[in-house]
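tmp note - ABC transporter ATP-binding protein
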Amino acid sequence: MNLFRLLLRTSALLLTLAILAGILSGGTAAGLIALINATLSQNQPSTTTLIWSFAALCLVRLIANLASQVLLIYLSEKAILDLRMLLSRRILASPLRQLEQIGAYRLLATLTEDIRTISNTVLITPFFCINTAIVIACLIYLGWLSRTVFVVGLCFLLVGILSYLLPMTKAMSLLKLAREQEDRLFNHFCAITQGTKELKLHRQRRQSFLKEDLRTTALSYRRHNIIGMSVFAAAASWGQILFFVAIGLLLFILPSLTKIHPTILSAYALTIIYMMSPLEHIMSTLPTVTRALVALKKVESLGLSLPANSNETTSVAAFPSEKFWQCLELVNVTHSYYQEREETNFILGPINLKFNPGELVFIVGGNGSGKSTLAKLISGLYIPETGEIYLDGKFIDNYNREWYRQQFSVVFSDFYLFERLLGLDSNDLDAQTQNYLAQLQLDHKVKVNNGVLSTTNLSQGQRKRLALLTTYLEDRPIYMFDEWASDQDPVFKDIFYTQLLPELKSRGKTVLVISHDDRYFHIADRIIKLEYGKVKYEKNPAFINI
Ligand SMILES: Nc1ncnc2c1ncn2[C@@H]1O[C@H](COP(=O)(O)OP(=O)(O)OP(=O)(O)O)[C@@H](O)[C@H]1O
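out:
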């Protein structure tokens, strides 16, 4: 994808109109220069026709220039908005595993830095187009003035462009390296925001983080940027001097080689001087354009490029709401993680499990045995590498996975809490929420108004209760809680296991609970124990020696 295609996708009509207006603007600029040259070269006072032509060209240039700029500004702002929305949608449509592999810091760098870089370039595109149109129109005018001089000039121009492109390529590779360092910088920024407490509490850790990690990366980023931008500056200065060399050639060398009329020479000198400002502008925008190209490449390399990368159907309208289901089945399901540094694989499965409505199932096992991974597989967040998942005999594939995920309400151990109760449009949402707040003993802390919670700045245990509240409001057939009770005080832990879970079960919900609380295993209908990624046993708690 390049910048032009990005603009074309936004609105082909607007882009065409803007380019036409830009060409007209550039053409009239060249026309004005031609008129000025013609007037200067004639030895008699200007005719009325010339004066009126000059006034008309001024007017056309004013209107065309304005129209082109306004159209392109509108177009570029629309392109940025579309890009922001598209990229956010792409991220949300990408498989969870792919996003985990990319890493939050890289996504953050793309959503902030890459979009900012692309936006900056898109915003200068209007002026880039108009200046290019002016340069092209001036070149046409020069060609019309004298073919011989033009051909010599063109050869000179080609040599100039080639000598400019060479350092440009070098600069581009340096900017690419700088962009890689930017990803690492974002990783360090995440460490600063998420590890503030750990860094504050340990002076040596903080100093070594600042010196060895952050500073080293920031210095490397700076070095690549400085060299890259200096190469650009050198190329731009070289380009500028080439113009004067061209004028020098024209004035001092060419007349001695071939016969050229002085009026043509002065017209050439005037036009080249006029062209210098738009050309300088074009050259000054090249570093920004190059950065944007690097940013676009980065977006593509993350697998978040604009062509659809997810084969999943995002519509759920084609499927019935699954309030009454009979059987959820996992057949030989596997998932593996490749741990690059350890060069080892963690393999979960093959897993064969069945779940029924109204069942309370505990998933237990030691740390790292694969419980959370299984939860992600069951809820459709991970796609099984091998094996199949069936809901009432319906094979879950890309076509219906989005619908399948809508059957689950989950509180993960690393849950996220939204301040607004998004996507819940019940008429009495506030009343229902208030009711649950009281049930979860949060009504003295949190209020709700028009679906907005008064605060989420609470203790971890209280925040988990708010996450539980959200799942209550979602009212879906299958509930999953990943170590939900681990942050609760003994009193509320007891309420969770002995009141809330049985209540959900009595409402016909299937409840899958990942837990280490063996004191409460007896309330489950079934216990599934995982060990090293395999199901060790699946039993009624009455038959287990806890
Ligand atoms: N995002 C990941 N990338 C790579 N490996 C991972 C990832 N998440 C988990 N693993 C690996 O998979 C294994 C199982 O992890 P999982 O989180 O499923 O275990 P768990 O049983 O939920 O553990 P715990 O009780 O500590 O929460 C672990 O050994 C871990 O190293």
